[in-house]
Amino acid sequence: MDKKHHLIHEQLLIAMQSEMQKFQDYYLWLENAMPESFFKDISNENIMMIVHNLMGFHLQEYFSTIHLQSGAIALCLDSPDADLKILKNYALYGIKNYETYVSNSPPPFPSITANLRIANIYFTEAVDKNTHPIPSEQFARLAALMKDKHPTISDKELNQLINSVNARFLSSLSDESSLLALEMLFRAKTRDSCQYEVRYNLGWEEAKTPSMQIVLAWKNTPKHNFLYRLARTIHRHGLVMKRVNAAYIEPYSKNSILVMALSLHGFNEKAAWEVADISDFIRDLVTLKYFPSFDIIDELLVSKKIISGNMGNAIRAIATFVHQILLHLDSNLYTLESIEEAFCRHPDLTVKLCEAFYFKFNPDDTQFEKYLSLKEQFISDVNKLDTGQEQNDTLRKNVFLQAMNLVTYTLKTNFFKMGYTSICFRLDPNYLNHVPFDRTQHFPKLPYAIFFMKGLHFFGFHIRFKDLARGGLRTVVFDQIEQIKSEMNNVFIECYHLALTQQRKNKDIPEGGAKGIIFLKTFDRVESEALILQKELEIAEFGAIEIAKQIDEFQQEQKIENLYQAQRSFIESLVTLVNCRPDGTLKAKDIVDYWKRPEYIYLGPDENMHDFMIQWIADYSKRYNYFPGSSFISSKPLVGINHKEFGVTSLGVNVYMEAVLKYFGIDPKKDPFTIKMSGGPDGDVAGNQIRNLYLHYPKTAKLLALTDASGTMYDPNGIDLSVLHDLFLNGKPLKFYPPELLSPKGFLLDRYTKKQVTPLIQHTLCWRNIDGKLEKDWISGSDMNYLFRHNVLKTKADIFIPAGGRPRTLSSSNVKDFLDETGKPTARAIIEGANLYLTDSAREFLDKLCVLIIKDSSANKTGVICSSYEVLCGLALGDEKFMEHKIVIVEQILDRLRLSAQREADLLLRTKHDTGEEMSKISDKISSRIDQFSTQILEFLEPTTLSHNLNDPLIKSFIQYCLPILQNYFTKELLENIPEHHKKAIIATHIAAPLVYRKGLSWFPSIVDILPLILAETE
């Protein structure tokens, strides 16, 4: 060996000896400094890696991470925010175990005084490689303990429950904690809110254990960033996580539940209760899932402890509501971002707002006079606001004043109730009289009540125009960010106008108009969870095709579960604030109620309301003893009248269509007529109207154009009604129409069949019959959108029936697309089967061009009339008798629907013929006149106590309104089971509506003055 190599060899030996000595020193330090549990839990191989990383710890700025295949180990200096530093690196991982170990002395580096913290992290896996059965002895112990606490649980349920939990998770806990975890899991299977138990270790000092343990189970909890968000919440309250054990049950299914055991302690080795307000912390913890953690409110208000995390949630909700109002001043100026920024720019005002809200509604500390004093000072401070930037000052003044108005006009809220899944406010509608613009321009009539909800990825409203009211609950969902941002601005005003339309529509029934809207935006969450699943599948070495399949299935299932979760949350919050005892006091605790009256609301299904959820809502109402019971929602799949099954809405649409055709001199039974429609064969109104055309006018009706979500089509010889009818029966959309049936010049656009032209460009399939030959035409995105939007509008026909489509589809911005090349409308009449399809300005424009428009409040009213009769029968008979007589009930309701639609159609066309007035205005006048008469009668009846005497004229009127089967066999049930206010509303409607239809709009006496004569006449 030459001298050079000898020198290198000597240096290598010296280096090795130095490293060996270093390794030994750090290992011995680790052995002396770390707790016994560290060596019990961490494998020898991993301890070796930890020692190696510790040797170069100072070169890595005292933060080191060891990446393992299904986990990680992190080393850092101990500090209050150590968990945050560690966990922020694992946003795209599901974490099922997180345990930290802290040394009893600083690591051996110069000038270092902080102890060492080592975190051991296990990630969730697509395939758990460490599955093994729970030891039989432990299984038997846990089963016996669960049986003792829940004697009604079956052996099958018990076995499934225990076996669903990872054995490693249960083995990491004591029997007491394992039992708690199983109990929380059992509860979480049927509840969306966080199920938890808190245990305090009073002897923590002697036992050397963390002072507090929380065991929780939470349905559909995200993996993305969840533990980091949890750590931030814990840190904000002065606590540290000593140990976290978690298991995701069925992690990638709709039944996913996170089970977690948290061992917590106060920082600086104090008891948790000495450093934190535990009640506030728990409230913060169990709402963590429902509100964002990384927004401007968190960054500038909550993280700086200017306001609490819970009040941060209140500000987020208030900002959302204020945005829905102030955007009518200037939608570009009053964005949600600018409104949230206003709260952050003036934290002193935000604090006063929160204090006012606190003292008005906190059930444990209600101080109304203090609230009034704070409010007065707040308004004074806002009015004095002057930063020298006039536009910014005006914006922020409006924001803060509207925020305080929300507090002022809120009558009750569930905010201080533990365990809510969304924040709900019940507002006095006089709030709208204090907006900084002409209220009548946007909200012409004050509603009776406004509810506002803000929860997990959604916000929503319920608006009603009478005390006793009914209307559908729709959920609006979009897949594209652009649509979400655009439609988000319309939620409140859309809900308002749908409720107002419903009020006009409900003229024939005792209930006033109402509407509920849930605006759901889960786009980001579904995408982030899908990324985690993809990563786990790749690690598990699944193939690309299988990964794509599983991702697609997961995304579809999650979209449905998120939809149902938002709907459940909306219903739970609404029922919490309206479920009263007969004297008007709320059944729910921890709610300060300034309204103190019973509220009776009835719902119906609307967009994205599936049979499963309709039944869930009915069952929920019964379970919590809300007065209407299962009648809370109509159109139930079994104990109800399903609108689509019986075609109740399209029945009315068809009556109006036939009446209008006859007005034009066309007998649809004999004479050919042309029609175009929006809405597909798989829809309720459109599908059933296609059925009506097929059954009643098979030889005279020619359906030229049709559009639904899946595409659009045109056939100059008429689309085959028998084929469309088959699609309706099978619940299939338009894209499944056989293209080979197209006539020459006909086409079928299939929006869901795409061809990738380049990585950034897709073309869409359009089938065309060109000179008798069927061809595939792949068209660009622009051409596809143009064809999709314009086909139905541009096609010429006698009748246009919009029976599907979003509100404002035909507006002032595109109404001219409804004109042909000569400037004439492309249809002689429009029957609005879809709500708010036309805006008022579009109606006015087409009215002037002599288009006969049967407005939505007339055209599709039979659906809600059916629901009203369903509720009446349900309240009178109960579920069993309703089912026993359902066939007869349905037949008699359908007869009533035809009569009601025909009466109004006759009056509309008679008045049009006599006066020449626009049909839309006539429709509104009919609704207003009936509403005016029924309101006068109802006010007259208010102080009256109704008798049970069947010969009483008022009771006779009530009975006459009811279906013949109820009149003939169930008068006792009608008198005993229908609430007094409901009977009075029925009497008022039964007198007012037929009177207007019979006498017309020119007859206008004081209804109360002639009431005795009218009652005598009805006899």
Count, helices: 39
The rough form would be described as globular
Strand order in the largest sheet: 21-20-19-18-17-16-22-23-24
Structural class: alpha+beta
The radius of gyration computed from the alpha-carbon positions, rounded to a whole number of angstroms, is 33 Å
Unreliable stretches covering 5 or more consecutive residues: none
State the CATH superfamily name of the largest domain: Leucine Dehydrogenase, chain A, domain 1
Estimated helix fraction: 40-55%
The CATH architecture designation of the largest domain is 3-Layer(aba) Sandwich
Main β-sheet: number of strands, strand sense, barrel status?
Answer: 9 strands, mixed
Please give the domain count. Answer: 5
Q: Which percent band covers the strand fraction?
A: 15-25%
Class of the largest domain in CATH? Alpha Beta
CATH fold topology of the largest domain:
Rossmann fold
Mean pLDDT across all residues, rounded? Answer: 93
Q: How many angstroms separate the termini?
A: 126 Å
By DSSP, the count of extended strands is 24
